[in-house]
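Title: Request for sanity check on Large ribosomal subunit protein bL21 prediction

Description:
We are preparing a figure and want to confirm that the structure record we downloaded matches what your pipeline produces today. Could someone re-run it with the sequence below and paste the raw structure tokens into this thread? We only need the token string, no images.
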Amino acid sequence: MSKNVVYAIVKAGGRQEKVSVGSVVVVDKMDGQAGDTVELEPIMLVDGDKVTTAADGISAKVTAEVVRDDKGPKINIVKYKNKTGYRKRMGHRAKLTRLKVTGIQ
């Protein structure tokens, strides 16, 4: 592994994601149109051999650009009870946002 590796662990959309400059991340729906810039909250920053956590006080900022809004895969929900004639079909598609990381300062 190279010594000049720079990446961050950020809190985005209820989960933690490992990001580096140029990476594309899919998170839960965020406010903003395509082309807008958003700032993600860093939890940990790795810069070569130096590791900084939120407890140590991170002064870095992680910026990302909204690429587009997406929808997740269709999830089919089927409920059925035997001998009663009860059947229920539902579906769900999660609303997602695709982000491209533009900088870690």
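Thanks, this matches our download. Residues 6-104 form one domain.
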